[in-house]
UniProtKB/TrEMBL annotation:
InterPro entries: LipoPS_assembly_LptD, LptD, LptD_C. It comes from Edaphosphingomonas haloaromaticamans. PANTHER family: LPS-ASSEMBLY PROTEIN, LPS-ASSEMBLY PROTEIN LPTD. One of its GO terms (cellular component) is transporter complex. This is LPS-assembly protein LptD. Involved in the assembly of lipopolysaccharide (LPS) at the surface of the outer membrane. Keywords: Cell outer membrane, Membrane, Signal.
Length: 655
């Protein structure tokens, strides 16, 4: 069959071939097309002087391929951002690949790279194996770096990506990632391995210091499996050979790596968790033997209806074993019950009554290895009983305000609990205590189970909410007063050590999607000095915006309590859309902590941590960016200096 003049042929896969002259066999599957344009189902285009198809395989002579738009929004023709030209192009639908002979990559109309032997998936379902776009990087420590990922599809549900990393100043490394989707869930395993010289993390930016060569690497894995509607398992691990490897090779800036698993059962009224976790600290001053290993950590909760007084009853059982290879070991178990009843009075007051009881048993060894005395507890077996009664009343007043609504809600809470044995119990999970708006009305202001805030107190505050067209405001402020004069176990500087607590609050403002501002604060009860000042601001749209964050913790606390150090920091970031596809972005982190905030700090009060500046071109089929980053923090062989990253991503080039 022969067809002439503006011919279109559509195959079952959804690809459409246009041509001036088409000759097909009697099966209408094979043939020859002159002046061919092949529009693939995923939007890609293949153009050629001539195209033939034999047994489903299409061969194009003097052809070009691009996934980019060839017309602008007004329908006028335009040159694609990038295209691949070749003497011959072969599309094999069985292999799901497009192969090229003597190919060249043209970027913005200029020939850029010769690509002999190029092939890539055709974008159909299932994808295929092949090279991914390389990453080019430069850093002061490793020199020039080029990483060329190679993707291997083992099956529709399994794949591997191998990425060689070649450096100009150090030996190469190899990165690998394996992923699999199963009938129960998915998991991923990956890592990075090399052989290089390393220095002690106590050495700061000294390339002449003694070092040793060794095998160095990083391993990570994570996964989640759902066995049935109630039972699930999630797990992850991150470990590295030494403290500076991740920063040296620009993999991560984290200072702690966690490995954990959690087997859970959840239904409408009960919850069971059997978990475990371990921590690898990458901080220079931390000793590995002091890092905790929790195995197991078991928590069970059951929620019941109260048939006598109404309300809800929650029963909890918990056990935890913490091991250290060169530190204090602790085992804990407790059982508790909590009753809550919420009712509304005739005046619209919301009244919540709470009763709580718990019995604990602890065992601990090697208490002298813990440096902070208040965290140790007594060696051997110790028991403890906890009880509390509480009443919490909220009284909302709602009315019209400036064309919208406002709500003013005074709130008062009374808590009574007998004197509790605390210092005989080791403190593992309740160290970093600080009064803030999120725990002001909590039954126990300590963050964990190992410490309980005893005594009787009254907590009072007010909430204010305003809702106008495109504008909203949420604010809360409050304070607590201890009814007895017994000394508190809460240390000075937490805002809770005296009878009157510090004043804490939070204010959140939103104007449409353009402005969002949050301010959290804690004011000293005696002189209204700011002890906590935290501000977050986002201003702009998704394309052009400014974000700023400021944090100051001025607790004025004993510096020997290592979990409550003071800190001051500012973070700034911005993105400016210069044109439809062009933008510039940047960010900075500055450590403002000095001896005034932390007597143990060696900083001068203005220490840049990291600067970043970049330019980005991003349209529908290509992402092209250049980023400069300067790191100022140096430890061991992770030296401070500049890093340059060139990123080129050709979108829609297969899958």
């Amino acid at each position: 069959m022969t067809a002439e003049g503006n011919v279109a042929v559509v195959n079952p896969a959804g690809d459409t071939a246009y041509g001036d002259n088409v000759r097909l066999t009697d099966t209408l599957k094979d043939g020859v097309i002159e002046n061919l344009l092949l529009v693939l189902d995923d939007g890609g285009r293949l153009a050629a002087d001539k195209g033939t198809r034999v047994n489903g395989v299409s061969t194009l002579d003097h052809a070009a391929y691009t996934p980019c738009h060839v017309t602008n929004p007004d329908g006028c023709p335009k040159n694609p951002s990038w295209k691949i030209t070749a003497v011959r192009v072969v599309h094999d639908p069985v292999k799901r690949r497009i192969s090229y002979d003597d190919a060249k990559l043209t970027l913005f109309g200029q020939p850029l790279i010769w690509l002999p032997g190029l092939s890539h998936p055709d974008g159909s379902e299932g994808g295929g194996s092949g090279l991914l776009m390389p990453n080019v990087n430069y850093s002061r420590t490793n020199g020039f770096e080029i990483a060329t990922p190679y993707y291997i599809q083992l099956a529709p549900n399994r794949d591997v990506t191998l990425t060689p990393h070649i450096y100009s100043s150090v030996l190469p490394g190899i990165e690998a990632q394996y992923r699999e989707l199963t009938s129960l869930g998915a998991y991923s395993v990956g890592g990075f391995l090399t052989y290089s010289r390393r220095q002690s993390p106590s050495i700061v930016d000294d390339p002449t210091a003694d070092s040793s060569r060794d095998i160095r690497g990083y391993f990570e894995a994570n996964g989640r499996f759902q066995f049935d509607p109630q039972w699930s398992l999630s797990a992850s691990t991150r470990v590295t050979t030494d403290k500076t490897f991740l920063r040296r090779y620009d993999i991560s800036r984290d200072d702690r790596l966690r490995s954990t698993f959690n087997l859970e059962r959840i239904d409408a009224d009960s919850y069971l968790s059997i978990a475990g976790w371990a921590v690898q600290s990458l901080r220079a001053e931390d000793k590995g033997g002091n890092q905790p290993i929790a195995l197991p950590a078991i928590d069970y909760r059951l929620r019941l209806d109260d048939p006598l007084l109404g309300g809800k009853v929650q029963i909890q059982a918990n056990s935890l074993a913490i091991l250290r290879t060169a530190g204090q070991d602790t085992q804990r178990a407790f059982a508790g019950a909590r009753w809550d009843l919420r009712q509304y009075t005739g005046l619209g007051q919301e009244l919540t009554l709470t009763a709580y009881s718990r019995a604990d048993i602890y065992h601990t060894d090697d208490v002298l290895s813990t440096l902070t005395p208040s965290y140790r507890g007594k060696a051997g077996w110790e028991g403890r009983a906890i009880g509390a009664l509480a009443a919490d009343m909220r009284w909302p007043f709602v009315g019209e305000f400036l064309g919208g609504t406002q709500q003013i809600t005074p709130r008062v809470q009374m808590v009574a609990t007998p004197r509790t044995k605390n210092l005989d119990i080791p403190n593992e999970d309740a160290r970093a205590v600080d009064l803030e708006d999120s725990n002001l009305f909590a039954l126990n202001r300590f963050p964990g189970y190992d410490r309980w805030e005893d005594g009787s107190r009254v907590t009072y505050g007010v909430e204010w909410a305003v809702d106008l067209p495109r504008f909203s405001l949420r604010s809360v402020v409050g304070q607590s007063y201890r009814l007895n004069s017994r000394p508190s176990i809460l240390p000075e500087g937490t805002g809770l050590s005296d009878r009157h607590s510090d004043i804490v609050g939070r204010t959140t403002l939103k104007y449409g999607n353009f402005v969002e501002f949050t301010h959290r604060y804690r004011l000293d009860k005696d002189n209204l000095a700011i002890r906590r000042n935290e501000m977050d601001l986002t201003l702009g749209s998704s394309r052009t915006y400014v974000t700023a964050a400021y944090l100051r913790l001025n607790r004025d606390i004993d510096p020997s309590i290592e979990d409550l150090r003071d800190r001051e920091e500012v973070r700034l970031g911005a993105r400016l859309q210069l044109a439809r596809y062009w933008s510039v972005f940047g960010s900075t982190v500055i450590d403002l902590t000095g001896r005034q905030e932390d007597p143990l700090s060696q900083a001068d009060g203005f220490e840049p941590v990291r600067h970043r500046l970049g330019f980005l071109y991003d349209d529908e089929c290509i992402e092209l960016g250049v980023t400069w980053r300067r790191d100022y923090d140096a430890t061991g062989d992770a030296r401070r200096g500049n890093t340059f990253l060139l990123r080129v991503a050709l979108k829609n080039l297969g899958r």
